[in-house]
C-alpha cells in the first residue's frame, strides 16, 4: 500500500501512513472519503483470502470492531464502517478487511514524545480521557485495544484518543489496562514498555528480574504514586499488578488534584498574598506577630499614599493646562485624530502612523507565529513558537511525507504576525534541512487564502542560516514563510526550521 492507492471499492484514497501494528498485521492510514469528501482513519488488514489463518484472524477482528461500533466516548474515534471481502472490498485489492473511523485532528502520540518525556501533571491530564473510555468500555463488556502507541493520537485540545479502533481477537480487558500503563510509562520516560511496539520508540529498560525499571528511577521528578501505577499496570495480577482501569483513573485524579492545588498556591504566592497560605498553618497554630511583615505593610501604605498624591497633582496640572491652551491655527480644516476617527490616506500610501518606525537593518519582533495550512492537519502546530524562541536547537518540523509536495498538499508554512505593520528588508531562516525551498509572502490577515498572499522573496535553504533579501513592498503585519518543497528523499520528505528572524528596511 502506497499513498494514492484507492481501496474500499474505489471510495477511500490513502493519504499518509500513521503506523503499523505488526501483531495483528494491520496498517494504519489517514485516507480521504471520496463520497463524503472528508478525511478518515482506516485500519487495513493486508493479505490474501487463501491465507486461512490470517483471514480468520481478520474476520474476528472485524466482528469485534462491529460490536464496538455502538460504543461512543470522546476518548475513542467513532467507527464509521467495517468492510470485508464479502462486503465492500474487491479481491484484487489484497485486503482481508478494513475498519473506517472518523479522523482525529491533532498529532501522533509518538511525535508528542519525540523530544523527551512530559511533565507528570501533563501526562496525567492527557491520559485521563483515554482511561475513562477504557473504563466505560469494560463496563459495557468491550475491549478497545489501546495497547499500541501508533493507534493513539493527541487531540487539538490536549487529550489522548484511540484513533484507530480494532482490537486484536485475543486481546482482553487486562491488555487494555497494560496498554494504559505502557502509555503512561511512555509519557513519563519516552520509552515503550510492551512487546510489539514500533521501531521508532526505544524499549523500556528492565531490571535483573525482567520487570521494567520504574519511571522515577529514570526521572526522579516523577511522583511515586504515578511511577508505581505505571509499573503495576504492566505487572501480572498474580504478583500484585493492577487489575482495572478504575485504579489507574483514581491515581490520575489524585495527581491532577495535587497539581491544581500546587498551582493555586504558586499563584497566591506570585500575587504577593501569603496570607492565603498562612491560613493553612493558622488552623492548627495561633498566629504570632511578624514585625517584618508589619514594616512591609506600612511601607506599602506609604507608597500608595504617595502615588495617590502624585495622581491628584497631575490631574490638577492637566486641568490648568486645558483652560490656558489656545486653539492651534491651521491652514485647512481641522482633523480629529482621536482613536474613534478614521483618516483616509492618499492612494498607494499607508495611513499615517500605521507602520512601525523600525530603523533600517533593525530586528523586528514577532508578536505571534502559527502554522499555516491549506489542507489536512497542520504540521506540529504546538511547536510553531520554537522558531522565535531564540534557540536554533529547538525546531519546528513538518510531518514526514512519502511523496514530495505538491503530491498530497501544495505546501505548508509558518505565518508570523507583528504588533504593527512594518516594511522588511530581509528574512534569515536557520534550518538543519538543506534543499528546502521556501517563498516569503505578505498577507492582509493571519489566516488568508494562499491566492490572496503576495510573494516578495524565495530561496533554497542551506544547512544553517539562509538570508533572503526581499522585494520592495507596502508595510505589512503578516508574513508567511511558505515551504514549497521538502528536504529528504526516498519516500521520506520532511523539513525543520530552527529560527526565523526579520530585519526592517
What does the secondary structure layout of this molecule look like, with pairings?
Blueprint: E1 6-7, E2 12-21, E3 26-33, E4 38-46, H1 52-68, E5 79-83, E6 95-102, E7 106-108, H2 109-112, H3 120-139, E8 152-155, E9 160-162, H4 173-189, H5 215-218, H6 224-234, H7 245-270, H8 275-282, H9 291-324, E10 363-364, E11 368-373, E12 396-397, E13 412-422, E14 424-431, E15 437-443, E16 454-460, E17 464-469, E18 476-485, E19 487-489, E20 492-494, E21 496-497, E22 499-504
Antiparallel strand pairs: 1-2, 2-3, 3-4, 4-6, 5-6, 7-8, 8-9, 10-22, 11-13, 12-21, 13-18, 14-17, 14-22, 15-16, 15-18, 19-20
How does this structure look, described?
The protein has 505 residues and is an alpha+beta fold. The chain is built from nine helices and 22 strands. A hairpin with a 4-residue loop joins strand 1 (6-7) and strand 2 (12-21). The two termini are 51 Å apart.
Mean pLDDT across all residues, rounded? 82
What is the overall number of helices? 9
Derived from helix and strand composition plus strand pairing, the structural class reads alpha+beta
Question: What share of the residues lie within helices?
Answer: 25-40%
Please provide the count of β strands. Answer: 22
N-to-C terminal Cα separation, in Å? 51 Å
Sum up the overall morphology in one term.
globular
Cα radius of gyration in angstroms:
30 Å
Oligomer: single chain
Task: Please state roughly what percent of the residues sit in beta strands, choosing from under 5%, 5-15%, 15-25%, 25-35%, 35-45% or over 45%.
Answer: 15-25%
List low-pLDDT spans: 274-290, 325-357
| Neighbour order of strands in the largest sheet | 1-2-3-4-6-5
| Sheet having the most strands | 6 strands, antiparallel
Amino acid at each position: 500500500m502506497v499513498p494514492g492507492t484507492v481501496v474500499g471499492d474505489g471510495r477511500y484514497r490513502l493519504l499518509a501512513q500513521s503506523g503499523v501494528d505488526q501483531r495483528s498485521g494491520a496498517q494504519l492510514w489517514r485516507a480521504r472519503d471520496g463520497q463524503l469528501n472528508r478525511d478518515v482513519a482506516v485500519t487495513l488488514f493486508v493479505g490474501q483470502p487463501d491465507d486461512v489463518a490470517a483471514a480468520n484472524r481478520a474476520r474476528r477482528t472485524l466482528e469485534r470492531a462491529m460490536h464496538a461500533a455502538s460504543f461512543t466516548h470522546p476518548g475513542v474515534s467513532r467507527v464509521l464502517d467495517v468492510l470485508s471481502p464479502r462486503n465492500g472490498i474487491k479481491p484484487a485489492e489484497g485486503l482481508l478487511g478494513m475498519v473506517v473511523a472518523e479522523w482525529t485532528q491533532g498529532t501522533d502520540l509518538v511525535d508528542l514524545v519525540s523530544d523527551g518525556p512530559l511533565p507528570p501533571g501533563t501526562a496525567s491530564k492527557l491520559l485521563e480521557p483515554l482511561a475513562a473510555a477504557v473504563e466505560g468500555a469494560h463496563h459495557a463488556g468491550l475491549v478497545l485495544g489501546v495497547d499500541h502507541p501508533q493507534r493513539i493520537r493527541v487531540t487539538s485540545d490536549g487529550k489522548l484518543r484511540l484513533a484507530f479502533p480494532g482490537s486484536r481477537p485475543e486481546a482482553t480487558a487486562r491488555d487494555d489496562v497494560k496498554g494504559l500503563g505502557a502509555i503512561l510509562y511512555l509519557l513519563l520516560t519516552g520509552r515503550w514498555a510492551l512487546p510489539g511496539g514500533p521501531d521508532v520508540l526505544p524499549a523500556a529498560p528492565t531490571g535483573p528480574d525482567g520487570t521494567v525499571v520504574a519511571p522515577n528511577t529514570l526521572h526522579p521528578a516523577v511522583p511515586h504514586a504515578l511511577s508505581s501505577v505505571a509499573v503495576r499496570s504492566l505487572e501480572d495480577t498474580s504478583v500484585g499488578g493492577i487489575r482495572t482501569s478504575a485504579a489507574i483513573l483514581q491515581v490520575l485524579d489524585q495527581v491532577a488534584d495535587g497539581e491544581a492545588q500546587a498551582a493555586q498556591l504558586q499563584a497566591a504566592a506570585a500575587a504577593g498574598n501569603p496570607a492565603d497560605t498562612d491560613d493553612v498553618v493558622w488552623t492548627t497554630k495561633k498566629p504570632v506577630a511578624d514585625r517584618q511583615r508589619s514594616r512591609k505593610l506600612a511601607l506599602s501604605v506609604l507608597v500608595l499614599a504617595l502615588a495617590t498624591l502624585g495622581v491628584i497633582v497631575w490631574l490638577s496640572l492637566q486641568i490648568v493646562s486645558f483652560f490656558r491652551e489656545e486653539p492651534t491655527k491651521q491652514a485647512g480644516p481641522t482633523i480629529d485624530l482621536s482613536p474613534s476617527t478614521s483618516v483616509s490616506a492618499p492612494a498607494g500610501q499607508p495611513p499615517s502612523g500605521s507602520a512601525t518606525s523600525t530603523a533600517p537593518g533593525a530586528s523586528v519582533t514577532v508578536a505571534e507565529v502559527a502554522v499555516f495550512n491549506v489542507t489536512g492537519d497542520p504540521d506540529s502546530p504546538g511547536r510553531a513558537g520554537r522558531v522565535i524562541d531564540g534557540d536554533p536547537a529547538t525546531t519546528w518540523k513538518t510531518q514526514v511525507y512519502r511523496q514530495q509536495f505538491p503530491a498530497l498538499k501544495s505546501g505548508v508554512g509558518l505565518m508570523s504576525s507583528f504588533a504593527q505593520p512594518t516594511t522588511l528588508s530581509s528574512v534569515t531562516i536557520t534550518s538543519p534541512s538543506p534543499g528546502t525551498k521556501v517563498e516569503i509572502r505578505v498577507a492582509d490577515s493571519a489566516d488568508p487564502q494562499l491566492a490572496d498572499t503576495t510573494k516578495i522573496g524565495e530561496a533554497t535553504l542551506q544547512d544553517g542560516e539562509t538570508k533572503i533579501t526581499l522585494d520592495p513592498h507596502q508595510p505589512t503585519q503578516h508574513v508567511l514563510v511558505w515551504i514549497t518543497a521538502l528536504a529528504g528523499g526516498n519516500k521520506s520528505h520532511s523539513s525543520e526550521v530552527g529560527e526565523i528572524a526579520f530585519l526592517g528596511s
